[in-house]
Amino acid sequence: MKVLILSCNTGEGHNSCAAALEEECRNQNIPCDTEDALRFISPEVSRFISNWHVRIYRHAPGLFRVGYRAAEDHPAQFHEGSALYRYLTQGAEKLCGFIAGSGYDTVICTHTFAALMVSEVVKTHLPNLKTCFIATDYTCSPSVKDSSLDRYFIPASSLSGDFLGGGVTSGIPVRQMFRSSVRKEDAKRAFGIPADHKHLVMMCGSMGCGPIMSIARRIRRDLPDDQDLTIVCGTNKQLYRRLQRRFYDAKNVHVRSYVKDMALLMDSADLYLTKPGGISVTEAASMRLPMVFIDAVAGCEEYNKDFFLRTGGAVTGQTPKEIARTSLRLLSDKDALEKMGDALDAAVPHNAAANILSEMSEAEEEKEELQEIVEFLRDPQKFTALGARIPKGVLPVSYTHL
């Protein structure tokens, strides 16, 4: 098996999922590469879509919400033959050449755009290619049902009714760093947090969107001296500068830009205040880290929020004031935090990347067996040799159509 993983640069979630799969492939000595699917249309298209995705997420989340709802309400815009379908699959020819030239026999898609493109490749050029799609949110996103792949891997069995054929429950892949843990006291010391302090980590995606400043001000106002708040701004440099100016004299408020070792920071946390991105909440769930949600973007994230609220591993509030109050209350409630951690541990499947690779290995065997049957049925001499042992009427009258 030689694996190509196709992601898209629309937020870090899809790329993080791809990284987790590539990590597991390396662990199993499976040849593997990861590519941006949109670059097969053109590098310019990839940059354009990525840049506008970031701008909308960060500055106009309401527009993203409206766009996502429109896609749900008008699924025909992704149907084969539509203008959008043609646009998203125009890189299929180039992708096909790349797959065939590099010798990949398995393609894993972590984004719906990639799934549409690969569906076109299979339909027109490479019918024996083994393919799958991994849902990186706790819902069946628009356009998934317009793709046609071998397997659809889903985050939880309760979502099977939303996916083609029910899907295969695997969980969402997260990197190994989020599946192992460091002692909380040691992790706190690594970030300059006293070991006996409660620690609230606040992050609103890699793009630093949402009402972070408003919530942080309210938390700081009532934050006890034995509790610390760390705010991660990700790639949002403007937010980082604003928060530094606002909290420069607050000893128990720590403002950080981009954190490379996010797993260690989450190990240090007693509570995680975040927007419900599919990957980030799965990483937290894998670490049994209770969450308070900021409903910053909605769209697919609204389904993620609802899923984890139902599990009991997360809570939310309607306003920045309510979110701040809820966070401070939970931070002081050890029993509630422990129950939320237990609920998260039971909510998501573990070892998702390994589960997916195992399933795709089985898919490889199934396709090989099917090909052997097809070749057998196409060879009349083999029927002649076995004819005496095959009861009359068992074989179809016409098998050559295979």
Radius of gyration: 24 Å
Biggest sheet features: 6 strands, parallel
- On the 0 to 100 scale, the average pLDDT is 88
- Percent helix range: 40-55%
- In DSSP terms, counting alpha (H) and pi (I) runs of 4 or more, how many helices? 16
Q: What gap, in angstroms, lies between the N and C termini? A: 26 Å
The sequence of SSEs as H and E is: EHEHHHHEHEEEHEHEHEHEHEHEHHHH
> What's the overall geometry?
elongated
Weakly predicted, low-confidence segments: 395-402
Helix/strand/pairing class, anyone?
Answer: alpha/beta
Within the largest sheet, what's the order of strands?
Answer: 2-1-3-4-5-6
Number of strands: 12
Strand content: 5-15%
Could you walk me through the main structural features you see in this protein, from its secondary elements to its overall organization?
With 402 residues, the protein is an alpha/beta fold. 48% of the residues lie in helices and 13% in strands. The protein has helices spanning 12-27, 43-59, 61-73, 83-88, 92-102, 112-124, 184-190, 212-222, 237-246, 262-268, 278-286, 300-311, 320-331, 334-347, 352-377, 380-386, and strands at 3-7, 32-36, 106-109, 130-134, 151-154, 168-169, 198-203, 227-232, 253-256, 271-274, 291-293, 314-316. The strands form two sheets. A six-stranded parallel beta sheet has the order 2-1-3-4-5-6, sandwiched between helices. A six-stranded parallel beta sheet has the order 9-8-7-10-11-12, with helices on both faces. α5 packs across α6 and α7 packs across α10. It is elongated, with a radius of gyration of 24 Å.
